[in-house]
Amino acid sequence: MSRAVSTVVDASMAVLLVSAAALALATVPGGTSQPPDPDAAARTVLASTATTTYGPGDGSVASGRVATLAAHAAVAADRGTDSGFVRGVETATEDVLAETGGRIEVLASAGGTTVRAGPRPPADASVASVSHEVGVRNTTATVTVRTWSP
């Protein structure tokens, strides 16, 4: 009789262990994480206000939304004018990106020139991006926000 009880207990333990193992495998997260939502990142970063000082003796001040400043910087860089303004906008945008604590890069392109702020994503990262057209001085610039997963 004790042998029959032992077999039932052994079978019950086997079923319990197999069930626990299956549950553990089902709850382990996968290795493919998606990058943060680029639309949400773009809304947060591009709508943020930034201020930069530039020019001889830092006598000029520009303040506005990151999207507008980045677009103006791209146009200025493409036209080869006001490199102090371009550097100032890059620095101000980097400050905004530092506050997000995330993996976000902002690129603004006009003509054949791109102004960049933030870290570049690793080559093996899964990258998502969203772009916006911004009107600047009778032309347009494309402002792109890129996000990636670790």
From TrEMBL:
Pfam families: DUF7284. This is Uncharacterized protein.
